[in-house]
Specification:
heterodimer, A: alpha/beta, Nucleotidyltransferase, domain 5, 2 domains, five-stranded mixed β-sheet, B: 376 residues, Substrate Binding Domain Of Dnak, Chain:A, Domain 2, Rossmann fold, four-stranded parallel β-sheet, 14 helices, globular
């Protein structure tokens, strides 16, 4: 068995695969680096797979918290792992958009599914899951309900500030001026989409475009991104665990080379 | 500690503690020191006056006072330089030369008199049209004005022979450094990205004559060693400078070797020689005219991209790392042009936006590691 762990800024993910690359166990815990999240995710994945730690031949850790997690055999970046995971799930993928808790990445893949080029957002929450979290808090809804809230939007609202802190003030002003929550929610999705589309334009978005990461669960963001980029975007099944799947695949590959 | 380690350790110590090193150099040589703002200054004239040219390329100081004069969208090198000036960290210098290569440097020239009144300012303007006769003549006139200012500070006349001797010494330094950077790929472990940077940086805080002797000694000692097998990734690095420690550590950890550079702080200082004909000041002016591929010097033919492609091919590099100094307009204007050319040439490129003082290097570390994983 092979273990992949993805320790993000806001959640921890673990995936266990067998030598036939079948997923036996997977888990997501909504606490990230520097918490008990990674241990809980790994434990839950073991329970789902019905195995114990001794069965793991090789493990790879990825994500923001990879440098401080010392229980894995190897660490690889989330860019490489998301690319590998996405290409495994959708072999025709040539572009991967991964929006996580604190960063956004656009990764170009070659025909073999290897990373050809990539761009990442600068150290700023604009265009990331954190931006949506802040918006959800102001709109008094859960992050999971932000997408359904935006479905009832009746009017387009533009959030002009890309900075999350300034955007927060802007949205509070709009709400106090009578703007509808639904419209603001849709505006927030559009703001993220614009930022990520701008990032993608630096390396170009070649089809098929695949989206991974927790924010891919938000249909409003996906729709806004499709509109901004003019490209069809495929959301991978279980987008949150794609980095962990990539890590598990590298664990399998490394172990195969060693044996 | 063997001889090589001793030389490298001494140079690293110099680069890591500039103020201490400059004061030691002043004591050792008995010279007054003149600060030189980026990017190019007539160091040969300063040296000919019997003064010690000292490079002022920012540092790791927190910015508090400089915000009074420079907005947050000015580059960190200039903001830190003004901050250090205002904090009195340059008080031991007899003057600073500030060349107006960009809008921020122009503002600093205006503000310096009130912001740092205790440190004498010699402003300079380099010609945009540096290759035409009028541009060269203008630059020679600028050099003459600066020369007079330096003569006053030094309390001596600078003769043509002083200038020629100084140019000869600087030519020797430049040639030595070209040899040094060329051997990095043969000793990629000893001269890893961080060590290479610190060795080159030390030149800014030492007498160039003594510095060149040290580098020659180091190269002689290295020649006695068997070549080190290069098992990492070879890159050409471009930009203003490649700092901080965390950035350089990430390159070392991921076995990324700088087989050549096009950094304003490093090779751009020594890759172009003076011409052999003409008066000393003409030779210096033509060195600026002949220096290409630098965003700070107007180049209507836009040769920067081809220069990078040539560096990649000559050194069999795997890619180019762009260390983009945040808010450096001249470098940012150049980037889209050479990016396209590198893409057409099929050369992988890593873009890193850097500041001199970065509290968190996690994102940059991830990008560097991802680039290494991509190339492997």
């Amino acid at each position: 068995m092979f273990l992949g762990i993805d320790i993000g800024s806001s959640s921890s993910k673990a995936v266990i695969i067998n030598a036939q690359l079948k997923i036996l166990g997977k888990a997501v815990f909504n606490t990230g680096a520097g918490t008990q999240g990674p241990e809980k995710a790994v434990g839950a994945a073991f329970r789902e797979a019905g195995i114990s730690g001794e069965k793991i031949k090789f493990s790879v850790v990825t994500g923001y918290g990879r440098m401080t997690y010392d229980k894995a055999d190897k660490q690889i970046t989330e860019i490489t792992c998301h690319a590998r995971g996405a290409a495994h799930m959708i072999p025709s993928a040539r572009t991967v958009i991964d929006i996580g808790g604190q960063d956004a990445k656009v990764i170009r893949l070659d025909k073999d599914g290897k990373v050809e080029n990539f761009v990442m957002n600068e150290k700023c929450a604009a265009g990331t899951g954190r931006f949506l979290e802040v918006m959800a808090r102001i709109l008094d809804c859960s992050i999971g309900n932000l997408s359904s809230l935006s479905e009832n939007a009746s009017e387009e609202i533009i959030i002009s500030n890309t900075c999350t802190v300034f955007a927060e003030s802007e949205v509070i002003s709009q709400l106090s001026s009578g703007a509808k929550r639904e419209n603001v929610a849709q505006g927030a999705h559009k703001a993220v989409a614009k930022r990520v589309a701008g990032l993608g334009s630096r390396i170009g978005l070649a089809p098929d475009v695949v989206m991974t990461g927790g924010v891919a669960l938000n249909k409003g963001v996906v729709a806004a991104l499709e509109k901004e980029t003019g490209q069809k975007i495929t959301v991978v099944e279980n987008p949150q665990i794609i980095g962990a799947i990539g890590a598990a695949l590298y664990a399998w590959e490394t172990a195969s080379k060693l044996s | 500690m063997n001889r090589i380690e001793k030389i490298i350790s001494a140079l690293e110590e110099t680069a890591n503690h500039p103020a201490k090193a400059v004061k030691a150099s002043m004591k050792e040589t008995g010279k007054k020191a003149v600060g030189c703002f980026p990017y190019y200054t007539p160091d040969e004239i300063i040296y000919a006056a019997g003064l010690l040219p000292v490079g002022l390329w920012g540092g790791q100081t927190d910015i508090k006072l400089a915000d009074k004069y420079l907005q947050s969208f000015c580059c960190s090198i200039m903001r830190i330089n003004v901050e250090q000036g205002m904090k009195g960290m340059y008080d031991f210098l007899s003057a600073v030369i500030i060349p107006a290569y960009c809008d921020t440097l122009k503002c600093i020239c205006d503000n310096w008199h009130v912001a740092v009144p205790q440190t004498y300012l010699i402003p300079m303007v380099y010609p945009q049209h540096r290759k035409i006769a009028a541009g060269v003549a203008y630059l020679i006139d600028e050099y003459k004005r600066v020369q007079k200012e330096l003569e006053t500070i030094a309390g001596k006349k600078i003769t043509e022979k002083d200038l020629e001797d100084s140019i000869a010494l600087y030519e020797d330094y430049r040639e030595t450094m070209r040899h040094f950077t060329a051997i990095v790929s043969r000793y990629s472990k000893t001269l890893n990205a961080k060590t290479r940077h610190l060795i080159i940086k030390a030149a800014y805080f030492m007498d160039k004559r003594l510095y060149a002797i040290k580098i020659k000694e180091l190269m002689e000692e290295l020649k006695r060693l068997p070549e080190e097998k290069l098992d990492g990734i070879k890159v050409v690095v471009t930009g203003i400078l490649a700092e901080t420690d965390a950035l350089l550590d990430a390159f070392v950890q991921n076995k990324i070797v700088f087989v050549a550079d096009d950094l304003a702080h490093e090779s751009r200082q020594f890759r172009t020689s003076v011409r052999s004909e003409g008066t000393a000041l003409e030779r210096l002016a033509y060195r600026i005219a002949d220096h290409d591929g630098c965003s700070l010097l107007y180049d209507e033919e836009k040769k920067h991209g081809q220069l990078l492609i040539d560096l990649v091919r000559e050194n069999h590099a795997d890619g180019v790392v762009v260390c983009m100094m945040k808010f450096c307009n001249p470098e940012e204007f150049d980037y889209p042009i050479y990016k396209k050319e590198l893409e057409v040439a099929g050369i992988p490129m890593l873009y890193l936006e850097i500041e001199q003082k970065m509290d968190s290097a996690e994102q940059i570390r991830t990008r560097i590691q991802s680039f290494a994983e991509m190339i492997k």
